[in-house]
From TrEMBL:
GO terms for cellular component: cytoplasm; plasma membrane. One of its GO terms (molecular function) is guanyl-nucleotide exchange factor activity. It comes from the Eukaryota. GO terms for biological process: cell migration; myoblast fusion; small GTPase-mediated signal transduction. This is DOCK2 protein. Signal peptide: none annotated. PANTHER family: DEDICATOR OF CYTOKINESIS, DEDICATOR OF CYTOKINESIS PROTEIN 2. Residues 2-196 form the Dedicator of cytokinesis N-terminal domain. It comes from Pandion haliaetus. Pfam families: DOCK_N.
Length: 201
């Protein structure tokens, strides 16, 4: 069961990166979304979770806006589709290495960053914002990772000492083909407008 779910998760991760890439034509995008929802429904079934009923576009039906009869028919249809899918999956004789080969061919990459120390004489608390930056397009290509650093030279959350780790995920082949990618750290001082000011707010 674990290997079965693992294989499905690899598929979903790969398809997610394709959806986020924004390079698919409209018809392929619709087809891929249907594959994703079908895979999620199938996974929920084999894990004995609740069945989610959807419309033709894969959107979840709102029970407050859908009649009971329509919901019943949608449940029936979804159950039949999933039952057929289970029969198809059981008839396939896939080798064990299939999931690993799919993962190795996946266009998704990650960058692991471990912040060991921050040395900068600020005199007050600081917030460090780390992100990936494309210098040619002058744009940030990731979300920010926030570290709160205290004025005494330690993280504000002292239990996070030696545990400041982040993984920048969903980096595709498009990102690897960029000429340069910088890891940028923006430092924001939290405290007085002027360090010489006697007001400590």
């Amino acid at each position: 069961r674990f290997q079965q779910v693992q294989s499905m998760m690899y598929d979903l991760m790969e398809w997610r990166s394709q959806l986020l890439s924004g390079t698919l034509p409209k018809d392929e995008l619709k087809e891929l979304k249907q594959k994703v929802t079908s895979k999620i429904d199938y996974g929920n079934k084999i894990l004995e979770l609740d069945l989610i009923v959807r419309d033709e576009d894969g959107n979840i039906l709102d029970p407050d806006k859908t009649s009971v009869i329509s919901l019943f028919h949608a449940h029936e249809e979804a159950t039949n589709k999933i039952t057929e899918r289970i029969k198809e999956e059981m008839s396939k004789d896939q080798p064990d290495y299939a999931s690993y080969s799919r993962m190795s061919s996946s266009p998704t990459h990650s960058l692991y960053v471990f912040v060991r120390n921050f040395v900068c004489r600020i005199g007050e608390d600081a917030e460090l914002f780390m992100s990936l930056y494309d210098p040619q397009k002058l744009t940030i290509i990731s979300e920010n990772y926030l570290v709160r650093w205290g004025s005494r030279g330690f993280p504000k959350e002292i239990d996070m000492l030696n545990n400041l780790k982040v993984v920048f995920t969903d980096l595709g082949n498009k990102d690897l083909s960029r000429d340069k990618i910088y890891l940028v750290c923006q430092i924001v001082r939290v405290g007085r407008m002027d360090l010489k000011d006697s007001n400590s707010k």
